[in-house]
Design brief:
The structure is a single chain. The protein is mainly beta. It has two helices and 16 strands. The strands form three sheets. Strands 9-10-11-12-13-14-15-16 form an eight-stranded antiparallel beta barrel. Strands 1, 2, 5, 6, 7 and 8 form a six-stranded antiparallel β-sheet that branches. A hairpin with a 6-residue loop joins strand 15 and strand 16. It is elongated and about 75 Å long.
């Protein structure tokens, strides 16, 4: 996945100071289990929590060592008064403060199967831009489509929230069968669409949408195509 967004654990406040309450916790060089462990903070050692990136936390030890700790291990710390540290999960308020989205959808594109992956950036809760890549699997041809979209979501606070889309892109079509004068082609597209998002849990959304495409073919006339898709989205 791209574009995880690290945010302060408590914006506008000092870093949260806690004490290791387990035999030890492991500091990684980055926010992922693929990053090596370079330091171990032992029981009783004081650490500051600086940033949160999904379920990874950037910390700084009393010795000035900075690294990343899993949520499972950071929950094995306690506050100065002795209470265990409790972490809130992402919720709907986090969605309204989001900047990045990643999603995957599947459905029908003019009767052919389509699979789409996309990444999006929200300028505001009501306005976002997206870049999507789709694979269309038809009976007689396969297509690869790239689109840039602008989305307006007028009621982001609603649990089931409608949105409207406008976009353009290109589609590369590759025939599967041998036909007279059949050849691959590259055409431009524009589309308008409407859809809904509904919040599921934590950082997960369900998204369903309908789009009407116009494909500007190099032949005599343009082609109109209806698209229906549904899938899941995570936000950061």
């Amino acid at each position: 996945m791209l574009a995880w967004l690290a945010v302060p654990l408590a914006q506008g406040k000092e870093p949260l100071r806690v004490e290791v309450n387990a035999p030890y916790i492991e500091l990684h060089t980055g926010p992922g289990r693929g990053y090596p462990i370079f330091y171990v903070a032992e029981r009783g050692e004081s650490i500051e929590i600086l940033l949160r990136k999904t379920d990874w936390f950037k910390v700084c030890t009393a010795r000035g060592m900075q690294g990343w700790v899993t949520r499972e291990q950071i929950e094995q710390t306690q506050l100065a008064a002795g209470q265990p540290l409790q972490l809130a999960d992402a919720g709907r308020d986090d969605y309204n403060r989001r900047h990045w989205e990643l999603g995957a959808l599947g459905g029908s594109f003019g009767g052919a199967h389509i699979v789409t992956v996309y990444g999006g950036y929200a300028f505001a809760p009501t306005l976002a831009t997206e870049l999507s890549l789709s694979q269309v699997l038809g009976t007689f041809s396969d297509s690869l489509m790239l689109n840039v979209n602008l989305l307006a979501q007028p009621f982001p606070e609603w649990r089931v929230s409608p949105f409207f889309a406008l976009g353009s892109g290109v589609i590369h079509t590759d025939p599967q069968v041998t036909l007279v004068q059949s050849q691959s082609r590259l055409d431009g597209t524009t589309h308008v669409g409407v859809g809904v998002r509904t919040y599921l849990a934590r950082r997960l959304l369900l998204r369903a949408e309908y789009n009407n495409y116009v494909v500007y073919q190099q032949r005599d006339s343009n082609q109109g195509i209806n698209e229906w898709k549904i899938g899941c989205t995570v936000f950061f």
